[in-house]
Amino acid sequence: MLDTTANTVYTHQFEGGTQIAGCYAVTAVDSVGNESLRSATICVDNCILYELPNVFTPNGDGINDLYVSNNLNDAIQQVDMKIFNRFGHLVYQTTDPAINWNGSYKNTGADVAAGVYYYICDVYEPRINGVMVRALTGFIHLYTGTGTIIYNE
């Protein structure tokens, strides 16, 4: 008989290694094979580890040139990200959870000015009861290293 008494940890993983939410119950088996009654079922959601930074420097130095999310367990597959300048004009939009904004105006290649930008990001999080939307809002400080901040776009 295989001794599994030391194995007291179970990690539920989705294909590809992403941890997912689930409902769990446990039983115990003694040394002669008697199995206990099943415990109460407990349901737990993922710890969604999706964060957005508040600063980046698209100045071409190869360091922090893209505005990217921290999607630590890759659970987020879709977002609706909108970034606005201080006048409320939309400067960037994406559904890619990585974001990958290079600081250009609507991907035209024209750089936006250094300054503070506002974002609204709907994050589609997988939960036990289905996909739920969590709204994130905040500010992005865009530095270019030029020392000049131009606000009129």
Task: Give your account of this protein's structure.
- The chain has 153 residues and is an all-beta fold.
- The protein has a domain at 50-142: Immunoglobulin-like.
- 0% of the residues lie in helices and 32% in strands.
- It has no helices and nine strands.
- The chain has strands spanning 22-24, 42-44, 50-51, 55-56, 70-71, 79-84, 90-94, 115-127, 130-142.
- A five-stranded mixed β-sheet has the order 4-9-8-6-7, with no helix packed on it.
- It is elongated, with a radius of gyration of 23 Å.
- The protein starts with 21 loop residues before the first strand and ends in an 11-residue tail after the last strand.
Q: Give the rounded overall mean pLDDT.
A: 84
Q: CATH class of one domain, anyone?
A: Mainly Beta
Radius of gyration from the CA trace? 23 Å
Number of strands: 9
SSE sequence, one letter per element: EEEEEEEEE
Spatial gap, N to C terminus: 74 Å
Name the strands of the widest sheet in spatial order: 4-9-8-6-7
Q: Which segments are poorly predicted (pLDDT under 50) over 5 or more consecutive residues? A: 147-151
**Relative helix content:** under 10%
**CATH architectural arrangement of one domain:** Sandwich
For the report, how would you describe the main beta sheet?
5 strands, mixed
Question: Structural class given helices, strands, pairing?
Answer: mainly beta
Q: Please give the oligomerization state of what you see.
A: single chain
